[in-house]
Amino acid sequence: MSAAVMWASSGTAGKALFQAGMTPFELVQIRVTFSAVLLAITLGLFGRKFFRIRPRDIAYFALLGGVAMALVQLSYFLAISKIQVAAAILLEYLAPVIVAVYSMCFWNERVTTSKLFALFLAIAGCYLVAGGYNLKLLHMNRLGILWGFLAAISFASYTLLGERGMHRYRPWTVIFYAFLFASLSLNIIHKPFNYLQVSYNAGQWWCLLYIVTVGTILPFGLYFIGVNYIRSTRTMITATLEPISAAFMAFFLLGEVLEPLQIAGGLFVVAAIVLLQLQKEHDEMAPELIRQKEHAEH
Predict the structure, then answer these.
(1) Do 216 and 10 touch, CB atoms closer than 8 A?
(2) Structural domain for 124, as ranges
(3) Cβ(268)–Cβ(101) under 8 Å?
(4) pLDDT band at residue 66, thresholds of 50, 70 and 90?
(5) Does the pTM exceed 0.85?
(6) How many Cβ atoms from other residues are within 10 Å of residue 201's Cβ?
(7) 13-21: long-range contacts at Cβ-Cβ below 8 A with a sequence spacing of 24 or more?
(8) Domain for residue 13, yes or no?
């Protein structure tokens, strides 16, 4: 939930940078490169053990960061550049469906009625908050829609790959190498470090610093810590709080009016998160209750 709120809070800063002339590609490059550098400095000072990985896992981190993370960052901003922000958010948050289906089919994650209902509530809530009922997706830029679908697929892949990596490493190790390989990838395929030749004013640098720290390093780290505790499906559904947070921040900070259906959508997402947490507590309590019953019978 903290990760979702932080991601949402960085949207305003990003929008201000776009209005000042920065391109989505430049922002994504700066976002992942500076994040990798700041994390390297922080871990070098306080936790060098987080740098240790097995040589055979380099290919895994290259896939996680250089492909999955780079794509999830780039495809989302490219979708925004082609279609409405609400539509891009709506398409990206099809990712929980992909994660849930994959986890249930290939990772033997238990299918429960409450989990499926929570998934439905979360997707329906995103649809309402993003104003999906006013969107004419079939008449929008087709390339933008394709970028939106790619954002959903890459976000789901990033989450699933990240959970796999945390079977062997701590969350901050996984997130550092994801940023490192994402920065290498994005600086190879586009003008490397071109943004260092551009003169930004003090306000723009503060926006960049906010996006890198509060909008990137902290939420991605917290997100993977969440995956480590509550698995991919639950974390993904909980992350649908991001568009809800963005809508309510716009209401309180920018004076944007929320329609009744948008408020209902927000309540749907909150209900989904509460339902998942109750289900998690039930799952954790069940084995203990069985042991107590067996002990009593004995």
Answers:
(1) yes
(2) 2-272
(3) no
(4) very high
(5) no
(6) 9
(7) 13/207, 13/208, 13/210, 13/211, 13/215, 14/207, 14/211, 14/215, 16/204, 16/207, 17/204, 17/207, 17/208, 17/211, 20/204
(8) yes
